[in-house]
Design a protein that fits this description.
Length: 959
């Protein structure tokens, strides 16, 4: 079914959406002032009634069912993948309303808007100037109104540009974290090309293929469109003015009518309800505009009084040919005309418009007629819950069953206006009020000072905004005092990282890196320098702090943060590490409160004596500290002082890594037990880190025989075969530790033999079922709070398990971090490309990347963690390092650490010899660290082609 759209002026119903290029502010744009405080957006002073909540939910369902996941756009009409900028402006207004009306949560909002803006930023412009009039909503291609692809396009609509500029203003005001992104999009568009002599001009393509600029807009829509331009600093004073108009008497009411009619200008001068409704709910009815709107409502009431026919006229799609009509109060000399864009009459299809009835009801809540016409359409919902129908035909009394984004978007916008206490959605003092006389200045407004980027994420009143953390009964429920820690003194001659990057980040990669770094900005304790492991919990493990240090190094190497910020944060963190109490005076405890710096359990409950140590967490921190002093040797003394305070007598025993746990006995005693670490992947990673510092942990390092299980026809490792322990700690196989190992240490032959089947099993599952699979341990906002989406666990494939080993129904997640890491390691692999495409938009610009999304529902998993965002930053760094291992070899073997090792007899369990137990080597396909102490020439670079071919041939069976 093909619907006919409005031409240059109000062409908007069947179409898709456009784009501009990324958020780089490459071109000049007048900088406006945000129209309102974001807090006002969430200020619901007149909550919806239960009936109104039903209206809102029904309208939102249209957008849920007409969403195009590949582009983030929505269909302009039900099931038809096409849209104009006007349609996309409708969707943005609907999305914002849905957020504050609690029809969707922040994670879903962010995912939708990120995808939308990503596509919008990358689509082709008409003549590289402005968005085409219409796009295919499913593919993002420029098309004509029949949805036929056109390489050049068909022009632009200035009115549609004005509509989306108004929507952009609402988004950046209510969600200021998107302000810079939106400014970048608008900056790329040559908006000034659509302004001439103080008026709005669209572009159309003539039969001879020439481009013609055509003045757009008549009384009502012209003023509304120009106000959208003004919000972004572009003035169109003649368009804002009511002139030229005249008053025409209809049913005893003097109605303002534009004198530029179809006969004289080939453009319709229709008077409809929607333009006044939009102006009222978005900008507020003021002065003459308020009087004009009241007259347009009153004349429709007079028609009802005279004829008994309920009247609420505006433009609408209809469910039969010609598919789109203007139901008007007046058009081109005819009262109550129902016409096409070509001015062809169809009076038999005049209808009562659902969106117009809703608009008048809430703009004039005390008006009895507005209530009456509203009552006629308020329940005009489709029986299959696909949204509101467009209206009711006057003649047949049958529903007009067209389903559109315009109808349902406007209903949502109207209900949000009501919930805000009938306050306009845009309250900028910079927007002009229309008058009868145009002003003379048509130049762009003077740029104002750029707004501060320091903003907070607004949240609606809903459970997802705050996350509950699992806790035992606290001994003290008072809020801990945040302890202040002074950074270590300035280091001598701070230097830039000595890493050599193969290339710079692309624009898109930089946006991802900046988003990931935002986690570490949002969760930073400025008094002591620590970072929370997860955003909903004021606690940290040494694994999480190792993640932070690795992220800090990556952010500096990628030039996401300045050298000054890196130095400040690094010195602060190193100082904090010296203040954390050690378990039994030996090693860092398993967890700390990031405010008080005291030991806590995993529920956040204080444990003054500590609860043991984790050799795995220590390994994570040792790897990060080693790389810090290798790439930034000015911090060597401070790093070595920290690690020399620790005792390694019980963590490294007979070549095996061991961890300590504390158990409470019935008699109240606390007993410490030290057992070998056996968690698959994590043990191998941590042991490699210990080897960097000279420890002999050969029996924990990757090697030996591994027990496997068949998953998707692939032999996946599940456990190391060993006789030194009967521990059953490892109950699952996930990707995380193997990816971290590969990024930091490279894939030595033995690790590659574990890594590849783990990846292949996930790729095979996707090929067999179409289910994206990125198995990982992730943190979520509800019980069991930690989910292991296992490749295999407890003898079953593709299960989700909690820490207690119990299944988590429908709990499997596609991990964002895993997707980024696989793509960094295997960029040419088809499945890794699919994974990345499915997860790159899962972030909040202020708080970082989400953990992922649920396999079963596709819903975003609420949760932000240091591990996810650190791995994303490290993955991006790996890409620009020519796929070299992130851990670089040290050359200084005379540092305080190695001097202490050389002296021996320390009583701290230091290594027996001052030699690293691992070395970086290269072969014809890759560089990687292996066990061994023999001096080996350092790797200075390998051919990317050879390494990439090796990775592809072993990990991608279909190539």
């Amino acid at each position: 079914m093909i619907y006919k759209l409005r031409q240059p002026k109000l062409l908007r119903w069947i179409a898709l959406f456009l784009v501009g290029t990324f958020l780089q502010l490459l071109f000049y744009i007048p900088t406006p002032v945000l129209s309102q405080n974001s807090n006002s957006c969430s200020n619901i002073t007149a909550p919806l009634t239960p009936e109104e909540q039903t209206y809102a939910r029904s309208a939102w369902q249209y957008f849920v069912k007409n969403y195009q996941p590949a582009t983030g756009f929505t269909n302009s009409t039900g099931g038809y993948p096409s849209g104009t900028l006007w349609d996309m402006g409708n969707y943005l207004m609907a999305l914002n309303a849905a957020r504050w009306l609690n029809l969707t949560d922040q994670a879903d909002f962010d995912a939708r808007l990120n995808k939308f803006l990503t596509t919008l930023s990358s689509l082709k412009l008409f003549e590289d100037t402005l968005p085409n009039k219409v796009y295919n909503a499913a593919t993002g291609q420029m098309v004509d109104y029949g949805n036929n692809p056109l390489e050049r396009g068909i022009g632009w609509s200035a009115l549609d540009v004005g509509r989306i500029l108004a929507a952009f203003d609402v988004i950046r005001t209510c969600h200021p974290q998107y302000n810079d992104w939106l400014k970048g999009i608008v900056a790329k568009w040559q908006v000034a090309r659509s302004l001439k002599d103080g008026q709005l001009f669209g572009a159309t393509v003539l039969p001879d293929n020439k481009t013609l600029l055509v003045q757009e807009g008549r009384l009502g829509y012209e003023e509304y469109g120009a106000r959208g331009y003004e919000l972004w600093g572009f003035s169109a004073p003649k368009a804002i003015a009511f002139e030229p108009f005249k008053l025409v008497e209809i049913n005893g009411v003097q109605i303002p009518v534009d004198t530029r009619d179809f006969q004289n200008t080939n453009a319709n001068n229709y008077i409809v309800s929607e333009s006044y409704i939009l102006d009222g709910i978005e900008f507020g009815l003021q002065g003459e505009l308020a009087d004009f709107a009241a007259r347009v409502l009153e004349v429709q009431k007079r028609r009802y009084d005279t004829t008994g026919q309920l009247t609420a006229v505006t433009e609408d799609n209809i469910d039969q040919a010609p598919y789109f009509l203007y139901n008007t109060v007046y058009a081109n000399g005819v009262n109550w005309a129902t016409i096409t864009d070509a001015n062809q009459p169809y009076p038999q299809f005049r209808s009562i418009s659902t969106k117009a009835a809703f608009g008048w009801r809430y703009l004039f809540p005390e008006n009895a007629y507005a209530q009456k016409v509203f009552d006629a359409v308020k329940d005009l919902r489709s029986p299959d819950d696909s949204g509101y129908y467009a209206g009711i035909y006057e003649e047949s009394k049958q529903p007009n069953k067209a389903l559109t984004g315009n109808t349902n978007g406007l209903i949502l916008e109207i209900l949000y206006y009501k919930a805000k206490g009938n306050l306009p959605l845009i309250t900028s003092g910079s927007v002009s009020v229309s008058t009868g006389k145009p002003s003379k200045d048509a130049s762009p407004a003077t740029p104002s000072n750029q707004l501060s980027s320091s903003v907070t994420t607004p949240t609606a009143n809903q459970p997802d905004s705050t996350v509950t953390t699992p806790t035992a009964t606290p001994a003290d429920t008072s809020k801990p005092t945040e302890v202040a820690v002074a950074p270590i003194p300035p280091v001598d001659s701070p230097k830039s990282s000595n890493l050599k990057l193969n290339r710079s980040l692309s624009v898109i990669e930089r946006r991802y890196a900046e988003a990931a770094w935002r986690y570490f900005q949002a969760n930073y304790h400025s008094k002591n320098g620590l970072i929370n492991d997860r955003s909903d919990f004021k606690g940290a493990t040494f694994w999480g702090l190792g993640d932070y240090l690795a992220a800090l190094h990556a952010a500096r190497s990628l030039d996401i943060i300045t050298a000054k910020e890196f130095d400040k944060r690094t010195r602060h963190l190193l100082a904090a590490l010296t203040k954390l109490p050690l378990f039994a005076g030996e090693l860092p405890s398993r967890g700390y409160d990031t405010r008080s710096l005291q030991s806590v359990d995993y529920g956040g409950n204080p444990i003054p004596e500590g609860n043991g140590w984790s050799a795995l967490d220590l390994g994570r921190m040792l790897a990060a500290l080693y790389n810090l002093k290798t790439c930034h040797p000015e911090y060597t003394a401070a790093v070595d002082k920290i690690v020399l305070d620790w005792s390694y007598l019980r963590v490294v025993r007979e070549g095996i890594l061991s961890s300590a746990t504390v158990t409470k006995q019935e008699d109240g005693r606390s007993l410490t037990r030290v057992n070998p670490e056996t968690r698959l992947g994590y043990e191998e990673y941590a042991s490699r880190a210990f080897q960097l510092w000279g420890f002999n942990v050969e029996r924990s390092a990757v090697g030996g025989e591994y027990q496997t299980a068949s998953v998707e026809g692939v032999k996946v490792p599940i456990q190391r075969r060993r006789t030194d322990t009967n521990s059953k700690v490892n109950q699952y196989t996930v990707s995380n530790p193997f990816l971290l190992y590969a990024l930091e240490f490279g894939l030595d032959p033995k690790m590659r033999s574990l890594f590849e089947p783990i990846f292949q099993a996930q790729a095979e599952r996707y090929r067999r079922t179409g289910t994206l699979t990125a198995s990982a341990t992730t943190l979520i906002d509800r019980k069991p709070y930690t989910v292991h989406s296992a490749i295999t666990g407890q003898g079953e494939s593709w299960v989700a398990l909690g820490d207690d080993g119990q299944p988590v129904p429908k709990g499997r997640l596609v991990s964002t971090a895993v997707a980024f890491a696989y793509h960094a390691l295997l960029p040419e692999n088809k499945y890794s490309q699919q994974l990345l495409q499915g997860t790159t938009d899962l972030y909040n610009p202020l708080t970082g990347f989400y953990e992922g999304f649920y396999e079963a529902t596709g819903k975003t998993a609420i949760g932000f963690t240091s591990s996810t965002n650190s791995m994303i930053l490290q993955s991006l760094l790996y890409k620009v390092m020519n796929q070299q291992p992130l851990i670089r070899p040290a050359t200084n073997m005379k540092s305080p650490w190695w001097q202490a090792v050389t002296k021996g007899d320390s009583g701290r369990g230091l290594p027996s010899t001052a030699i690293q137990q691992t070395k970086l080597i290269s072969d014809n396909s890759a560089s990687y660290w292996v066990s061994g102490s023999k001096n080996t020439p350092l790797v200075t670079g390998t051919k990317a082609e050879a390494r990439e071919q090796g990775a592809r041939s072993r990990a991608d069976g279909n190539e």
